[in-house]
Amino acid sequence: MKTTFPQLLLKHAAERPADAAIREKEYGIWQTWSWKDAATSVQQLACGLLALGFRRGQNLALIGDNRPHLYMGMVAVQCVGGVPIPLYQDAVASEMAFVIEDAEVQFFFAENQEQVDKLLEVRETVPSIAHIIYDDPRGLRNYDQPGLISTAQLMALGAEWAAKHPDALSKEMAQIRPDDISVILYTSGTTGKPKGVCLTHSAFIASAQGGVEVDRLGPSDNIISYLPPAWVGDHLFSVAQWLVAGFTINCPESASTVSIDLREIGPTYYFAPPRVFEGMLTSVSIRMEDAAPFKRWLYAKAMAHARRVGSNILDGKSVGALDRLLYQWYSLVIYGPLRNVLGLSRIRVAYTAGAAIGPDLFRFYRSIGINLKQLYGQTETCAYVCLQRDGQVDLNSVGHPAPGIELKIADSGEVLVKGVSVLKEYYKRPDATAEVIDAQGYFHTGDAGLIDASGQLRIIDRAKDVGKLKGGAMFAPNYIENKLKFFPQVKEAVCFGHDRDQVCAFINIDFEAVGNWAERQGLPYGGYVDLASKPQVLQLIADCVGQVNADLAGEPGMADTQVARFLVLHKELDPDDDELTRTRKVRRGFIAQKYAVLVDALYAGRKEQYIETQVKFEDGRTGSVSATLQILDAKIHASVKAAA
Fold first, then answer.
1. Is 344 exposed, middle or buried (0-12, 13-18, 19+ CB in 10 A)?
2. Backbone angle region of 53, left / alpha / beta, with phi > 0 → left and psi within -120 to 50 → alpha
3. CATH code of the domain occupying 5-268
4. Bridge-partner residues for 625, per DSSP?
5. pLDDT at position 188, please?
6. Angstrom distance (rounded) from CA 306 to CA 312
7. Which residue has the higher pLDDT, 479 or 643?
8. How many CB atoms lie within 10 A of CB 297?
9. Buried b vs exposed e over 10-42: b needs ≥16 C-beta within 10 Å?
10. How confident is the model over 520-542, as pLDDT tens digits?
11. Three-state secondary structure of 18-51
């Protein structure tokens, strides 16, 4: 049945008014909004917008962390026929300015003083910014700039306006159609300026319904909403599925308290990109390195057993009685406490999406009893193309097509998608829309993949990134990078090799993990640059690269793509320096251009290379960091020599 997000909210408010819709942790205490409370707040916010002059067809941008009023604000905008545009909360003023001008935004929802300050800075060059609604009043008492109003003031204004215009909001809501644009989400801009992806109520609701049916989600489920609201994944889970399934969403106190809040809430349904799961594994590895020798030995034994039988037990496959009994004992002493430390002890379903996840990382979580599955999609498809069903999880695939989705592979190997989740258009970009949606209605994903014998989709890499070495071997950089990032000491990796005779790599160390290791070795260091250049650290990373090469040497078609040479970068790759997108995807082309001197040094056989790099600080200042980087030869395994 076709419907809209405001109608779904009112339906829950009417059928289960007292049930918890949304919670927020503030000052250490969880505050709860029932479905009735949420509906009332949304209606007051919507009427407040009408009182300010907001009208059907206008866009409203929201910028902030995961907060109840931010999510309710999105629905309030939809109630009056407007379109919400969530922005990345860590975006700098210049990034925000592009979207604000492109989408002609006049109304804004800002979480706090930090975001208000950014918008006021942008207003100096983009005078169209007329109204800024702020949620947290701390620090804003003496601000007297025109157009500033708090959420509390807006809701009071809305209640007053509604009393004078009792039928106005219901008339506005009656005009909303399922095929209307419900949200504009801007792409991460990996290869250029971001584009506004226009997605309808019906597309997101159908996508949410498909996931709800597959995983039997309902009102009794709990999730924690902590991912950037501007990311399509959060919009699917924290908005669309929230309003379709009617479960409770929980907003953490801050980004730094997510792990604590996760353990308090004990969500039954969890969603995170691979980088979050990588970070969790890194924290576990650090703790185990600090543990007593007996505990480290027991953990190693338990994990070896989990790798052998854990996934089979989770999938309900046949496992010997002795192995099953041993697994249960390890669950009591190792796996169970580990899941509890991670905050995942009550998880029934967990998903990862947004980037490819390495099979080793995937296997780790499933082996300890966490039902982690892959979801495949893009911003243009509501993050909804393929789902992995229970009992059909293949570590190397992203699952079967989701309900309502049709897939095919083009002659070029590109994955094409048609179905309920496909975008309506790019905002004001008919040329870009025509480029990605063909005459048959298929969306061209830009991903290279294949459909295996069981009907599951396997993604090789971004089509533009897949290349070949001079010797003819296929080069899929993301596949190698994910293997490198499985090691807790490696935070980021960038591989090069297309049209080259060998693969070379940049490595970012994980400062926390490697710093912890250095302290246990009695190795002093004076910051990131110093630590990254230590000979002992370079050897540590060389060992990781060597293990990855050993894996590649044993895989069909991958032996020639072993990493031949590498260097450890002197700085972390950073979205503020345009090296990563706001969703932390590598901007490979930009990095290759920015660090061309290092790429040339890798392939020229040099042993070291000096570089000075411009960096941006959080307060807007710029500076530089310089170092002479050591370039190392990695251990190449015998299979490559034999192939040569």
1. buried
2. left
3. 3.40.50.12780
4. 613
5. 72
6. 10
7. 479
8. 11
9. bebbeeeeebbbbbbbeeeeeeebbbbbbbbbb
10. 899 999 999 999 999 999 999 99
11. CCEEEEEEECCEEEEEEHHHHHHHHHHHHHHHHH
**Cα gap 436→381, rounded to integer Å:** 12
Instruction: Please report, for residues 12, 167, 481, the alpha-carbon distance to residue 35 in angstroms, rounded to integers and kept in the order given.
Output: 6, 21, 44
261: tokens are 């809040």
Domain ranges of the chain: 5-268, 467-643
Nearest to 417 by CA among 396, 439, 445: 445
Predicted TM-score (pTM) of the model is: 0.83
Residues 6+ apart with CB under 8 A from 514: 489, 531, 537, 540
- Which single residue is written with the structure tokens 């005779």? 501
Which of 243, 239, 246 lies closest to 222 in space, CA to CA?
246
154 and 397 in contact (C-beta within 8 Å)? no
Whether the CB-CB separation of 558 and 552 falls below 8 Å is answered with: yes
Q: How far is Cα 494 from Cα 544, in angstroms, rounded to an integer?
A: 15
The answer to whether the beta carbons of residues 469 and 502 sit under 8 Å apart is yes
Question: Which amino acid belongs to residue 181?
Answer: I
Strands (E) across 135-267 are located at: 148-150, 181-186, 196-200, 222-224, 248-251
- Residue 159 one-letter amino acid: A
Residue 1 pLDDT exceeds 60: no
- Is 326 in a helix, a strand, or coil? helix
For residue 566, the cross-strand partners are 505, 632
Q: Smallest Cα–Cα separation from 354: which of 389, 328, 383?
A: 383
Rounded to a whole number of angstroms, the CA Rg of the chain reads: 25
Mean pLDDT of the chain: 91
Q: Letter for the amino acid at 329?
A: W
For residue 412, the one-letter residue type is S
Q: Which long-range contacts (CB under 8 A, 24 or more apart) does 392-396 make?
A: 392/454, 392/456, 393/311, 393/315, 393/366, 394/452, 394/454, 394/456, 395/359, 395/362, 395/363, 395/366, 396/359, 396/458
Determine whether 597 is exposed, middle or buried from the number of CB atoms within 10 Å of its CB (0-12, 13-18, 19+). exposed
The architecture of the domain spanning 467-643 is 2-Layer Sandwich (3.30)
What pLDDT, in 10s, does the model give residues 560-576? 999 999 999 999 998 88
- With tokens 């979480």, the residue in question is 111
Answer with the residue of higher pLDDT: 274 or 131.
131
- Cα angle value 331/336/342 (rounded, 5°): 145
Crossing angle for the helix pair 511-520 and 274-289, nearest 10 degrees? Answer: 10
Is the confidence at residue 642, as pLDDT, over 50? Answer: no
Angle at 297 between CA 295 and CA 303, to 5 degrees: 100
Distances (CA, A) of 262 to 32, 68, 277, 364: 16, 17, 13, 20
User: Is-contact 414 448, C-beta < 8 A?
Assistant: yes
C-alpha to C-alpha distance for 247 and 21, rounded to whole angstroms: 7
Distance, in Å, from the CA atom of 41 to the CA atom of 428, rounded to the nearest integer, reads: 32
List, for residues 397-448, the tens digit of each pLDDT value.
899 999 999 999 988 889 999 999 999 999 999 999 999 999 999 999 988 8
CB distance 107 to 54 below 8 Å: yes
Amino acid identity of 48?
A: G
Query: In which region does residue 234 sit, left (phi positive, over 0), alpha (psi from -120 to 50) or beta (all else)?
Result: alpha
Instruction: Report the distance separating Cα 362 and Cα 281, nearest Å.
Output: 11
Distance CA 582, CA 627 (A): 26
Q: Do domains 5-268 and 467-643 have the same CATH topology?
A: no
